[in-house]
TrEMBL record:
Protein name per UniProt: Protein involved in gliding motility GldC
Entries under InterPro entries matching the protein: Motility-assoc_prot_GldC
Organism of origin: Flavobacterium fluvii
Length: 111
């Protein structure tokens, strides 16, 4: 029998009386993260049976709009890098990078 390893990532959300996130915490023991607070997260998973993406996007009431813009830019940039590694599609990756640069320029993000 093959030995299997298991790794767990835990998300914890504290909600106010209107079910709006007040506090977001995450744990990834293997990565050395224990109940670390964050202001926002996006999680996408691929459902192979339905051939569709399931998403959860949450942010706290305290997440400033200027930080949300930077968060989106960094997420798009990371997705671009992941797309390139996963597909090897250099042409589309370059197009996506151009969009990330355009996004940052239009939002006047200081990078």
């Amino acid at each position: 029998m093959a030995i299997t390893n298991k790794s767990e990532i835990k998300l914890s959300i504290e909600l106010d009386e209107n079910r709006v996130p007040e506090k977001l915490m995450w744990t990834a023991i293997e990565g050395g993260i224990q109940e670390e607070e964050c202001k926002a997260f996006m999680l996408s998973v691929w459902d192979g049976n339905e051939k569709s993406t399931k998403c959860i996007e949450l942010w706290t009431k305290e997440m400033p709009v200027d930080e949300m813009k930077v968060f989106f830019h960094q997420t798009l940039t990371s997705m671009t890098e992941t797309f390139q590694r996963a597909t090897g599609d250099e042409k589309m990756s370059a197009t996506m990078k151009d969009f990330c640069d355009y996004f940052a320029e239009k939002l006047q993000l200081k990078l």
